[in-house]
Amino acid sequence: MLGRLLKKALKRSRPKNSTQTRTDAPIEIRMTLQESIQTLTHIMGNSTDFMVRKISGREDLPEIAICYIEGLVDTNLLNRILESWLTVTLEADQMPGIESLLNKILPAGPISKLHTTQSIISAVLDGKAVILADGMKEAFSASIESLEKRSIEEPSSQTVIRGPKDGFTEDISTNLSLIRRRLRTPSLRVQSMVIGSYTNTKVIMAYIEGIADESVVSEIRARLQSIETDSVLESGYIEEFIQDNTLSPFPTLINTERPDAVAGGLLEGQVVILVDGTPFVLLAPVTFFRFLHSSEDYYQRYDLSTFLRGIRFFSFVISLLLPSLYIAISTFHQEMIPTTLLISLAAQREGTPLPALMEAFMMEITFEIIREAGVRMPRVIGPAISIVGALVLGQAAVQAGLVSGAMVIVVSFTAIANFAIPAFSMAAAIRIIRFVLMLLAGTFGLYGILAGIIPIYAHLVSLTSFGVPYLSPVTPLRFADLRDLFVRLPWPFLKTRPQDMNRRNMVRQGMNRPQQGKK
Amino acid sequence: MRRFGLCSIPLVLALLLTGCWNRTELNEIGLISALCIDRSEEGWIVTYQFINPSAISAGTGGASKAGGGESPVHVFSSEGPTLREAIDVSYTESPRRLYFPHADVLVLGKEAARKSITDVIDFYWRNTYLRENVSVMITEGQASEMLKQLIPPERLPGTAMAHISRQTDHFNSNFPSIKMYELTRSLDSQSGVAGVPQVEVVGESQSRIESMDQLHKTSTPAKVRITELAVFRKDRSVGTLTRNESIGISWLTDKIRISALSITCPGSNKGTEKFSFQTFSAKTKTRVRKEADGFTMLVSVKAKGRISESNCPENLANLSNLRAAEKEIEEVIKDYMSKGWEASKRLQADLPHFADQIHRKYPKEWSKIKDQWEKEGMQSTRLVLQVNVTIGQTGMSQKTFKPDGG
């Protein structure tokens, strides 16, 4: 019901977005340099960082102007261009074409001819230097951009013990190079597009030809191209525009900061979407179980990986169910608790004022507040928050008899279990669902928990990610894929790729068979 | 579809309005650790042993003082013409909801046991809030007195009683413990007989261990102990068996697990020197054979064990002595079994459940002798005993320790 209302609201709001089209028919470049410069500065609104440098030192050559945005271009390279323009020697008494002359003096990188004022502006905004010549209806752009960028560092959100320590940065070409470095194959297809009428953000879609499912690739491409928005500041924008089910709490795209995870995903048939300006890269399609896998699972020994996966699935269940199970059993089904445990629980509950449900809600909300505060506050005050959180809200609340000790344990264990889920987006989904389940448990007991879990399960079964069933390979069941799901068998046993993403090129080991799509 | 959606909103919201339905917070229930049923003139007296959680758990809970001073349990009784009414009456003095599923033990008073326990059994099976896996026990006199006894070092007397019964069952098999469902099954069988351990307060009868002061002493003057095995036939108790007779019944009914026997040494001339034999596995098989003048029960016992102490002049590790010792043990076991059977005949209670075997093998004959089984059939049934004992180990030493300088 709520869903339908929201959908309607979405539909209504779509056309509004699309009315906001970009201006203008193409404007031709003027013949005289002066006029051209005037037009450009007018469009740029006399912005002070828009630089136009006129060069008229050579009598034998036409006057030219170089336009660029201060800070986006490499000043050294710019100086070199100027220098060579002033010192270039011409072939004997021939009037050379400007184009060939420029080819001679401009540095490596593509030089493109521009015919409209709009294209000049966008080239300039991309960080290129545009060279206009007096009396010419064409302009030339040179790639001398130099953006300030962060160096490659260890990912802060997804750390591993064993495995590569490099992480994506905010710069899209660096990110692409990190992927290219891992997949040295011509089959890696990269397609870029620009999204956002104001931000003009570069978005790159990459996949491995021959492994990724063609229909998935074209579906993602179509969804990306249909995005009409004025801004894309982070890959989260893209995620919400192209995900299958807007109203589901479960993510249908996975984000990662790790190039090795992306490379692994590409090799299993996923499509990667990079967005300029963020280290978080999207992978799609994705199934539920991948949110509980870590790229480290493939680097550590298989027995440890299997054990750790078990721990993660267990902590997933704990994180989802523990508070509601505690509420349900301690308020409805006391006969299920062993006598001695029940006595000690009852002793702790003696004198606590609130019902178990309220107590659990209070503590869970308190924890969420501490957690949120921990993320937002300045790093310097970190220790203060942990003291207040642990001592005041935990220890003191129990001693004051406001909360029972068992509840503090339950809430803390739930919180810790939540951190064991490797994907933040999945952990967040459970955090929300947990509250609903707690309410149901406090109202109907175990029956209520079941009444909550069955719809969630039904929802998970019905969910798809770009056409791939969310719960595959469990529903629909594919035995071959179970080798790398709850357990991870040693690499020599993982001869085929997961079948949920790709059906054509399944074999990844065994030299006897030719591998298609890969060289 | 839209209308359906609109209609379902109030329905879903109404579900939330029901509040917390039959929710009971942990501090609203009174956990009962033992239940006790006595007979009065008008009806039943039910006695409850309430657990006082904060006195038990020396934890950090709401009450910060680790309940040293408080009594771990509170006992009170209520009376009524039926069991349910008696329990309902208890709410006139109980501040909390009685919560039965955690009761470990049900103690029946002598009067109740003598009259009839069918009401109790029916009550247990009919209601969901009572558990059929409570240990059943019997006491001489008023059962409610038993619940007031503290059993150090356990803090919960009810649990302690159930544990005593279980330990007896496990580690010497003298008095097999019986749960409500086993009792029901036994009484409902062809033999219709069950043995229930009988607990008593022994020692200085005046100083009951009701006061918490008793917990501060190293030895309480009075103790709760299982003394005898009460025998139920059909619906009432008909007598008791002594410990030795009860052991015999345990051997006959394959209830022996670990049990120690004291045996006269094979080479002992006066019979004063003894060794002890501890079984670690025992298996009893019974077969029935019909003969012209009645039934013969073939009881074959296979027991394995170790020698756990010895005062014998001979070296028991010597093979011939070992065989002789085995013979002695076999005789002792046979003796126990025949004593148990004699006691059964005396009480006219078929404790070894031979009737069920006869019924199973000779259903036609059984229907004829059924009514006269206790009075005649049982008395004429012969017992053929066959015991096979193996001494598995003689322990870490061979000869008996004698400080003679050799």
UniProtKB/TrEMBL annotation, chain A:
Membrane-spanning residues: 311-329, 380-398, 404-424, 436-458
Keyword Transmembrane helix: yes
Family: Belongs to the GerABKA family.
Organism whose genome encodes this protein: Paenibacillus lactis
Keywords: Membrane, Transmembrane, Transmembrane helix
Protein name stated in the entry: Spore germination protein KA
Domain of life where this protein originates: Bacteria
UniProt keyword annotation of Chaperone present: no
PANTHER family referenced in this protein's UniProt entry, alphabetically: LEUCINE ZIPPER PROTEIN 4 (PTHR22550:SF5), SPORE GERMINATION PROTEIN (PTHR22550)
TrEMBL record, chain B:
Tagged with keyword Membrane: yes
PROSITE patterns reported for this sequence: PROKAR_LIPOPROTEIN, SMP
Membrane topology: Lipid-anchor
Keyword terms, alphabetized: Germination, Lipoprotein, Membrane, Palmitate, Signal, Transport
A Pfam cross-reference name: Spore_GerAC_N
Main localization category: membrane
Tagged with keyword Membrane: yes
The organism's place on the tree of life at top rank: Bacteria
Occurrences of domain SMP-LTD (ranges): 117-352
Localization terms from the record: Membrane
Listed InterPro entries: GerAC_N, SMP_LBD, Spore_GerAC-like, Spore_GerAC-like_C, Spore_GerAC_C_sf
Family: Belongs to the GerABKC lipoprotein family.
Name the UniProt record assigns to this protein: Spore germination protein KC
